[in-house]
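Service request form, structural biology core

Requester: graduate student, group of Dr. S.
Request type: structure prediction, single chain
Budget code: on file
Notes: please return the result as structure tokens.

Sequence provided:
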Amino acid sequence: MRETLIKTPASTHGRHRSGPSSDGFSPAYTVSRRVDETISVIYLHRARRAPMPLQDAAMLVPCPSAVSIDPVSCRPRLAMARLPTPFEPAKRLAKYLGVSSVHIKREDMAGYALGGNKLRQLDFILAEAIAAEADMLIATAGSQSNFCRSLAGAAAKLGLGCHLHVRARMGTELVGNLLLDDIFGAEVTFTQETDPWHPAIKDEIEAIADRYRGQDRSPFVVQLTGVSANVGVAGWMSGAAELCADFKAIGRIPDSVVVVCGSGLTAAGLALGFKHLGVPTRVMGVSAQQPEARLRKWITETANTAAAWMGIETRLSGQDFDIVDEEIGPGYGIPSDASVAAVRTAGRLEGLVLDPVYTGKGMAALIGAAEKGLLGKASSIVFLHSGGTPGLFTHASAFDRTARP
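Core staff response, request fulfilled:
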């Protein structure tokens, strides 16, 4: 059991330092380099191929978007997500798991486009896109990608174009996130490649970007490597700082934060952030896609590349966080019996809405750990609800074929 009151010595990792506050605490997340002033206001308008109907005339109004400097990563940030997100106790779930406490970090309530953990990353990615004077956002993922849905929603808010080149394997029917992509005005095309890391996808994306350049557009490609990955990690380093404020509010540092991993950017940012800020909470990444060894290596390398890019000295090792890959089940984007049961359990205990292909697999891993006796009675757990609500309705049929508790 580790129940540590948050009077942790301030972190001296890297170039950020902090000192004790007036209440006697030395919160590691207090950073001296706070830059609160707005450094720019950007006005954008939507480029249209056809005349705008009168009922859409309101879209002609420019959208002001304040870009400021994030105090943790010292990177530009576009303030679009609704932060801080709620941090709620889940007492009935804690009793069910046999642990001291469970809190839910409600990233599903982060704001536009049905929320989700991607919105923090997008605050930073979009700041980079605006700095590059982009007018078209391009991304690739699975056809029911939460990230793509969030990106399409952000593009709509900012008046930018959005092109999503997605893997058809998860389906092409206009339901769930694909329906929302359409509602948000994104252009959607499909690739038959099934491996997100296949070089052919990169070539296809570059061809799409070249086509827009030929139309005198300025595309910005959002991808899992390079600048996009770096700023995604920065987004969740900032999220780690926000969690530290939540920890201070409850008067203890939880043992673990459970987070589902697709690409792994959220886990990379959290693990790097906690280490950088001197917080001993372990990140438990539950893979929804990649085998344990591959995901652990990718998170470590991505976090360290981002740290160098941000100019901080903190580095992750593969032992600084935990990875569980037993809940991948039938595959990425496919419900399992355990995830469907976990969705029902969370709903019936806490009124919590999870989905069976992402957050449900994270909850299944947490329940599985409790059933295996891996969680002590004094354990304090945080479950990061990363959103993904559309996936519940996309996979409604999975609930018909599984037994109810």
